[in-house]
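Review form for a predicted model. The reviewer records the input and the model, then writes brief findings.
Reviewer: anonymous (R2)
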Amino acid sequence: MGIFISVEKTVECILIALCFGALLTMSSVKLLGALQGCNYRSGKLMRWAAKRNNMSFERLTLLGLLCALSSAIVSLCFSFAGGWAAIVGLVPYAVFFGLYIYADGKIALRVPAVRTKRFKRLEGVLFFVCAVISYVLITLLNFAAEVWGAQLFTVLRYCPLAVLPLLLIPMICLSNELAKIYEVPHNRTYIKKATQKLASSKITVVGITGSYGKTSTKNILFAMLGKKYRVLSTPRSHNTPIGIALAVNANDLSGFDIFIAEMGARNVGDIAELCEICPPDYSVITGICAQHLETFESLDNIIRAKGEILSATKNKAFLAADCADYFKNCPCPFEVCSCVSEVEASAEGTSFMLTLGGESVRVKTKLLGAHCAYNIGLAASLAFELGVSLADIAAAAEGLEFVEHRLQLTKSNGINILDDGYNANVKGARAALDVLRSFGGRKIIVTPGIVELGILEEKENRQFGELLAGLDLVILVGDTLVTPVKDGYLSAGGDPEKLMVRQTLKDAQAVLRSELATGDTVLFLNDLPDIY
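Model under review:
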């Protein structure tokens, strides 16, 4: 055979490589889900995987060590079979990979992976990359065995394949970057299609942005405008170019009168890009705070980014009262929301006076927190501008249902559960605590702190911790931000015996099962996605 690999050995290498490609791809489901949560940004996935107590690298390292050790033992036990001993030594790989895949499947992502077409394409690219890298490594090992000729190495030649699990995360990142060769131009084409579709339609576009309250205000406005118009909106919290394009391309715009586009941003220029896709006839800014400061770097940049919607607004903008001062030089006609007064918030809901067109009506909604009254008022101002009557606006407000994961109240066995999992900003956190304190009985919070505050993260989380003093039980989750929250809580006189730190949300829930009693209220604030 010399130094050349025979046809039979080549076939062997290909078959083994395909098996490893499949095993590695099946082992990557959670990691691919985390990558999706990182908006397919490879660098962010690597930072997530490297975080202390994340255990991703550690678990893959353990898998590699177990495979190497067991493969060596089995191969040596079958050394009498000569070169076939190495083939038998591959069996432990299948066993331990199978156990890893089973155990990984038991660890659910807090934000489950959505098997979109892009996700499936990435899986295909990952399989190809894993198979190719496996093939190269397997071929080199066989080549070395032929050249060296040592019997022991021939028997153990597949033990070094245990390094493949350690390479899985880098291979995922490589696959992601390779997939972008197709994905980036494909997305541009898809977005261009949506842009042209909107431009050729007669639909009225409403753009909503802000540091917080975007989705809630969008849902409220959808209900109000629905009293008179056929309304289309971006689903859930879809507020990126692709999210907007999906909503537009999936629908026949001739069947709608108004399109409400939620617009999110993490950098200056993001809103301007969204406005190029769907230039707003009317716009709404719900409020400004130091959210996503990690990428914006300063409050001034946040104001600049959110203000980009005003430059693109064709008719009129509607601004929340607490951020109007930031936009005194608004380049389009605007109205500051001032239609809400006499707000009364309790555990039963929120009521307030709504004044539009010189008429007033008392509105009662099941939504919780005084802040929701101002979101309703902001939406009501725009709906009234578009011709919806005050009576219809009030009726829509009174019929509003809780927005999923945004101070969503459910009751179970006499226990009040406030799900504010999507709340990740300072102002929203304070509002949620006000709502929690409006309930009777014991008051409990489960939170990991507040993220993406950049250089203010430690300071703001310490101040947030101070606000938790006086609650009956505080459960801090994870290790990302709990230290400043804990320090703030204790410095404000919080009772150490009422403070617990648990590594995961599952661990916190186990505590609650033994702690909760009838009449208690528990607030889940900011259930961090897996990428944190």
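Findings: The chain has 20 helices and 15 strands.
Further findings: The two ends are 53 Å apart (CA to CA).
Recommendation: see findings above.
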